[in-house]
């Protein structure tokens, strides 16, 4: 069975907006992937409510990458290696057309180069059947407009959507006390579309440390890093500093692979402890089977604060200087500015109850030392491609969290203002530009 036999218009190039990061996004139209030893599979054998653990030669696990650009393309390559996965890609534009024609090419010096031929590639999420797992890798600037499309894939009772995003996620306020919530409407979801259509109960958060880029339509390059943290959008549980959701010691490694402090001061978590059979366990096992270095976190907001230690200095300095990560940290003055930004992020996190550790700034700067990977911050890639910048999720939301706790952030204020102006100028220039021949 092919995507075309399921009624998916794989030849159409409609204008469903699946996000700025999918401006080079996509997939192809080859034969269905099936479990080992089975030559074909009928539509009747595709379950619309298949639990993750119920895989066999007669059933496939449906996984959809929603926005198969840089990060999504890398994940597609990894999941394509798992037997029994029915992998679909949501993408658009030239990238989608290239993948339909030739497959998604992923260049990876670590795992080896691959060409992905997904079960289906489309810019119409409503054309796909319900999915077991939807991995959303859209930029935060495109999430709200994609809310109904994402929700259309979550019809099965067990369906979950993993949001691989930068900055403060749309579900941040879920379960938090009022004093720790992001005040007002979330800049990523100003009208509450994600909250209404997807709902936090269907969401799983993901913090990623993985450097990827779209080199050309249909071609993704994995430059460095393969670290992922998954967690449910709930608060950390007070006193649960010993074990994470998998039973591992959370004094192990942070997203950068560095040792984490053994004690955390968390003021805000009062949720229930995870059950022994968490819905995330099977998902973590699936990701590991795809060769992804993933752990479950019982404190995903803490992981988000640690990722902001990466995003805030790298995105701002990279976008404003057009320098890659290695070159940013070759200059003492840029390092000094990065240190100030890091100190401000640590202070904001502490004001909301997350102690990132006394050595968080030094540890992060050590991690930034030039490594010769050629990594370029994703916001810099957006600048170079003329795409909208994730200023709202990464910078505006963090500043709002600082203000509601009375934390002053002079360095963050300056770079946010400059990035906002850069974003405004880019989008204005895009609107004024004449159409290409």
Automatic annotation (TrEMBL):
Residues 299-421 form the Ketopantoate reductase C-terminal domain. Pathway: Cofactor biosynthesis; (R)-pantothenate biosynthesis; (R)-pantoate from 3-methyl-2-oxobutanoate: step 2/2. The keyword Transcription regulation does not apply. Keywords: Oxidoreductase, Pantothenate biosynthesis. It comes from the Bacteria. Its EC number is 1.1.1.169. One of its GO terms (cellular component) is cytoplasm. One of its GO terms (molecular function) is 2-dehydropantoate 2-reductase activity. It catalyses: (R)-pantoate + NADP(+) = 2-dehydropantoate + NADPH + H(+). GO terms for biological process: pantothenate biosynthetic process. InterPro entries: 6-PGluconate_DH-like_C_sf, 6PGD_dom2, KPA_reductase, KPR-Related, KPR_N, NAD(P)-bd_dom_sf. Residues 63-228 form the Ketopantoate reductase N-terminal domain. This is 2-dehydropantoate 2-reductase. It comes from Pigmentiphaga litoralis.
């Amino acid at each position: 069975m092919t995507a075309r036999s399921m009624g998916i218009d794989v030849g159409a190039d409609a204008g469903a907006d699946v996000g700025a990061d999918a401006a080079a996004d996509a997939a192809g139209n080859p034969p269905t992937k099936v479990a080992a030893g089975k030559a074909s599979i009928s539509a009747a054998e595709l379950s619309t409510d298949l639990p993750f653990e119920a895989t066999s030669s007669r059933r496939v696990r449906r996984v959809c990458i929603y926005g198969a650009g840089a990060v999504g393309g890398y994940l597609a390559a990894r999941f394509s290696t798992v037997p029994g996965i029915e992998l679909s890609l949501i993408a658009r534009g030239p990238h989608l057309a290239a993948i339909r024609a030739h497959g998604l090419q992923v260049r990876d010096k670590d795992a080896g180069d691959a060409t992905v031929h997904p079960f289906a590639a489309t810019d119409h999420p409503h054309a796909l059947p319900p999915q077991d797992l939807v991995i959303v890798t859209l930029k935060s600037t495109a999430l709200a407009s994609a809310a109904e499309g994402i929700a259309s894939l979550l019809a099965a009772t067990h369906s979950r959507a993993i949001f691989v995003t930068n900055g403060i996620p749309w579900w941040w306020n879920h379960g938090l006390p009022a004093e720790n919530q992001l005040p007002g409407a979330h800049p990523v979801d100003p009208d509450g579309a994600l909250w209404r259509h997807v709902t936090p109960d269907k969401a799983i958060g993901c913090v990623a440390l993985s450097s990827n880029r779209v080199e050309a339509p249909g071609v993704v390059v994995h430059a460095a890093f393969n670290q992922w943290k998954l967690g449910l959008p709930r608060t950390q549980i007070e006193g649960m500093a010993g074990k994470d959701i998998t039973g591992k010691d959370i004094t192990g490694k942070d997203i950068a692979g560095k040792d984490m402090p053994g004690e955390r001061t968390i003021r805000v978590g009062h949720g229930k402890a995870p059950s022994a059979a968490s819905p995330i366990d099977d998902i973590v096992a699936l990701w590991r089977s795809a060769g992804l270095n993933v752990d479950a976190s019982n404190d995903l907001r803490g992981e988000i604060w640690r990722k902001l230690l990466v995003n805030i200095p790298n995105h701002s300095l990279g976008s404003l200087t057009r320098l890659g990560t290695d070159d940013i940290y070759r200059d003492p003055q840029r390092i000094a500015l990065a240190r100030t930004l890091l100190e401000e992020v640590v202070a904001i996190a502490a004001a909301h109850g997350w102690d990132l550790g006394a050595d968080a700034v030094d540890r992060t700067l050590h991690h930034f030392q030039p490594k010769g990977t050629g990594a370029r911050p994703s916001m810099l890639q957006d600048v170079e491609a003329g795409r909208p910048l994730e200023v709202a999720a990464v910078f505006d939301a963090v500043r709002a969290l600082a203000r509601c706790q009375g934390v002053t952030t002079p360095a963050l204020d300056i770079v946010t203002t400059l990035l906002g102006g850069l974003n405004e100028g880019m989008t204005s220039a895009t609107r004024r530009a004449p159409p290409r021949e």
